[in-house]
Amino acid sequence: MYVKIKDFILSKRGAAVGVAAALVTTLVVGSFHYDEFLTGGKDAATPDVDAAEVEVVDTEAPVLTLNDNIIYTSDVTTVNGAVIASYEDESAVELTIDKYVKISDPTEVNDETKQGFVAQLSQATDQALLDELAAVETVTAADIAPHEVAPAVDATTDATTDATGTEVADATAEASGEEAATAEASGEEAATPEMTPANEGIYTAVLTATDANGNFTARPILVVYDVTAPVIAHDTSDEKRVVEDIAATPEVTVGESQITDTVDGIIAPDRATVDVAEKVEDAEGENTDSNAKSAEELGIHVFTVNITVADRAGNTAVLTYDLSLYDQSTYSSASASGNGNASSGGSSGSSGSNKSSSSGSNVNKTSGSNAGEIGTATAGESSCDAPPAAEPANIYKYCPTSINGTVLYCSNEATPGQVKDGIYIGGSRVLTTSSGSWDSVQVCDPTVIQGDFYYQGSNYCYLMAYLGCATYDCTANEVGLAVSNNLWSWTKVGRAIGAAHDGFWGVGQPSLISYNGNIILFYTSGTASCTTTYARQLLSTNLDSILLSDAARITVPGDFVSNADFAFSGNTLYMTCDTHPFPSGSLNFISGVQSVYSGTWDGTLSGLSSIGWSKVAAIGGETTGHKRNHNGCFVRDGYGGLSSREIYVSVADEVGNWSANLYTYRFMRVAF
After folding, report:
1. What is the DSSP letter of 191?
2. DSSP labels, 586-632
3. Is the pLDDT of residue 21 over 90?
4. Residue 566: which of 518, 528, 529, 531 has the closest Cα?
5. What integer is the mean pLDDT of 214-226?
6. Is residue 386 predicted with pLDDT exceeding 90?
7. Of 501, 456, 507, which is closest to residue 482 (Cα–Cα)?
């Protein structure tokens, strides 16, 4: 720049005016004064020039770089273009955003929808962009943001209308002050201005970088104006847990879909901050009743949970609730209620079933597909007679569960010749797979109890647990729940216990009981290290949020427990399960003998791990007349109470290839 100025002055040396002044090497944009070109004095090559004032014109616009073309804001009046832009210029630059045009009401902006909005941006820049917008009705940030508007004028008052159509008071009356004087004299309050609501939405706008000389660069951008905070879903069932150590600070995690936002959509859990602190009662909140027990005496410890999250526009949501921890050894009142008791009648059923369980460390099913989980029964069936003549030969029935005389079971009766498990009653399918879901490939192993259950605004009287999976290789099985009011029409609640998806069997073969109002969910777990059975307590009958306790492990002497069903009678708990190891042969993935155990139980979850089990029956081929005896269930009442000393046992025989063996799966009712 200095060389350019020097050349300019040399070419204009005859036009010098003014007084002598020293040459300023720091450029002052607009004008500067000079004396001599050479600060050391005159020389022969450079003639003298008088002092002059030279006007220097800066015509270069700032170089503006956009790092993104969308801004999220909760305040359009203070939005800063620097969050998405950078610039280069030798003078001060001001960034402004104006000329808003609304293109959408608030909606989710994700990678896909963003491209659609970007496509609506003009391709023009700088002056061409401004010329283009001259023909479009634009608004300012002040128009969009909440702002005061004149109060409505009473119908009896002379009024006129402004350019926008808004009624305004007559100018003469306003000038004379008559209205104000009248209101004051009558003691009425003067009308206060109203505020317009925020005009949320997605806008195109112009980001302009302007230097001190008025040179500018203009670029089209998107502005998402969002003043609505995210929503953090919460259910009261999240406010209690049954644990072994109530003093330990609980871990609280945010669910994958727990936080939603109008613009951001589902907000990832890692964007939220979770703080859990021991609750301290205020002095005013202290209990003055000398006979009242403390929380610790009641086996309760309360923590306060704060979940905080902000969306991309900066709107913040905070969820605060108390989380009560109940001592597992003394817990009773915090458990789910309304599910009857041990002596109540009702309709329930349970099964512990799945295509197969293997000895060793995994619960392998049959090779090839989920076909190994075969077997079933018809309601009231008391023997394993051959199928009726009209029944297709290429079906299977297995893993029954009984509920007050009604039997649900797993079969392929709706799809003969295909290994497509569904849950049936008397030949009618009552539960099937859900495309694209976690249970899209198979549903089987039903177990049912009755009680009072709530889900998404409706009440139900039956709860089913079942095995579902989305794989064809007998891995990643999971446990889900469903509800009904008639046993024939079921509404799926969702996954209750998920799988690790580590290439092993997963979880399944559930069995439900409701004992003195406490709902216990038993299930088989097959991992890399072992196959075993666990029990967890369902802590709330509000199934909008499935809340389960920690797990208790079920063990027996000399064997491991898999594919088990449970029933109770008084303080005696009964269990029927596989017997290991399985016999060799082409059906080496299912049991040859169905074992039955009993033991005294104190009714608590923790007490399940210390039951002294005794084997009371072994139901095998001598009883049923079949080589394989597996996937059994007790004849039960509605809560899992033992109705009679009988079980339904699934049976099968080796008659040929894998498919032929599969279609021998039936079940029968026997005494023990």
Report:
1. P
2. TTTTS-S-EEEEEEE--SSTGGGGG---EEEEEE-HHHHSSSEEEEE
3. no
4. 518
5. 94
6. no
7. 456
Backbone phi, then psi, for 656, in 5-degree steps?
170, -135
Q: Is the separation of the CB atoms in 485 and 460 below 8 Å?
A: yes
Q: For residues 564 and 576, what is the distance between their CA atoms, to the nearest angstrom? A: 5
The answer, as to whether pTM is greater than 0.85, is no
What DSSP character marks residue 575?
E
- Reported residue count of the chain is 672
d(CA 505, CA 181): 85
Label residue 53 by pLDDT band (50, 70, 90): low
- Domains along the sequence of the chain with CATH: 2-56 (no CATH), 63-145+198-225 (no CATH), 148-195 (no CATH), 231-282+292-327 (2.60.40), 370-671 (2.115.10.20)
User: What local confidence, expressed as pLDDT, does residue 154 receive?
Assistant: 53
Q: Cα dist. 518→146, 163, 541 in Å?
A: 54, 70, 10
pLDDT tens, 164-179?
444 444 444 444 444 4
Q: Radius of gyration over alpha carbons of the chain, in Å?
A: 39
Q: How far apart are CA 180 and CA 355, in angstroms?
A: 86
Dihedral (CA of 631, 637, 640, 646) sign: negative
- Mean pLDDT across 121-138: 92
Tell me the per-residue pLDDT of 78-101, one tens digit each, with 9 for 90 and over: 999 999 998 887 778 899 999 999
What totals of helices (H) and strands (E) does the chain contain, helices first? 8, 38
**Rounded to an integer, what distance in angstroms lies between the CA atom of residue 171 and that of residue 157?**
11
